[in-house]
Design brief:
With 258 residues, the chain is of the alpha/beta class. The chain contains eight helices and eleven strands.
Length: 258
């Protein structure tokens, strides 16, 4: 079954192309990593998939999710989980970790008067917090947690609706390497046959072994895609980043350095 299908997406800001004729599609169960230099358009592509950004309405542009072109956004938010640097407002709130995770059921920051959370919802929040090893800190307010702890809470929030697509945009930003390893292990547990994962990363070590496909982006375009073995080569990445890049592999985990 199709997860998403994006064709001929153009995005412009202040007269500059952020995406230029980008097409990408995935089926349910595929796992994809998107890499490339700063300004390549990676985060914009994630937002296009999630319909948080709409490309230019050109005749050739096409977008479908789960085989459908038209969606009520509230329904879509329950089927797509999203973690991104743009969620920093969650870091400053005095809502507890448990409340933030439960609010993912309503795609909200905390709760409003019309939001109803019952016992079953709280139990679901506790279950997701347990998966990311944060259940013991469920009553801590977000603004008292470490960066790594907050990232894990946001991952639990994104997963609470059991989404068919999980979009992870630099989910480990600001974490030390042991914390990145812990997060990689957690993300690996979400890689099931009925869920598509798309992750944007600057750290090759974040790429979980289950990733099927690597997409390389530069200057708003997809320049290559393929398996890890096909794409994560020193010559290819050196060209992508316009400087010599060296690769090391250990137990299926890649690292890159210049």
């Amino acid at each position: 079954m199709e997860a998403f299908d994006i064709r001929h997406a153009f995005v412009r800001r202040e007269g500059k192309h952020i995406l230029s004729d980008v097409s990408v599609k995935a089926d349910i169960g595929e796992r994809i990593a998107i890499i490339g230099p700063n300004g390549a358009g990676k985060s914009t592509l994630i937002d296009v998939i999630d319909r948080r950004i709409y490309p230019l309405a050109l005749d050739q542009y096409y977008s479908s999710l789960f085989g459908e072109e038209r969606w009520i956004i509230a329904d879509l938010r329950r089927r797509i989980g999203h973690v991104s640097p743009g969620q920093d407002e969650f870091f400053r709130t005095s809502y507890t970790a448990r409340e933030i995770v439960a609010s993912g059921l309503h795609a909200s920051l905390g709760f409003d008067f019309h939001h109803i959370i019952d016992k079953e919802d709280w139990e679901r929040a506790d279950e997701e917090l347990s998966k990311v090893s944060m259940l013991d800190k469920k009553d801590r307010t977000m603004n008292t947690l470490s960066t790594g702890e907050m990232r894990r809470v946001l991952l639990a929030r994104a997963a609470i609706t059991s989404p068919s697509i999980l979009l992870l945009d630099e989910a480990s930003a600001g974490l030390d390497f042991p914390s990145r390893a812990d997060l990689r292990n957690t993300i690996s547990e979400y890689a099931t046959a009925n869920r598509t994962i798309v992750m944007v990363t600057h750290e090759l070590s974040e790429i979980i072994p289950a990733i099927d496909r690597i997409i390389l982006m530069k200057d708003g375009k997809i320049v290559m895609e393929g398996t890890k073995e096909e794409t994560l080569k020193e010559s290819i990445l050196s060209d992508l980043y316009s400087r010599p890049v060296h690769i090391a592999v250990a137990d299926g985990i890649y690292t890159a350095f210049c």
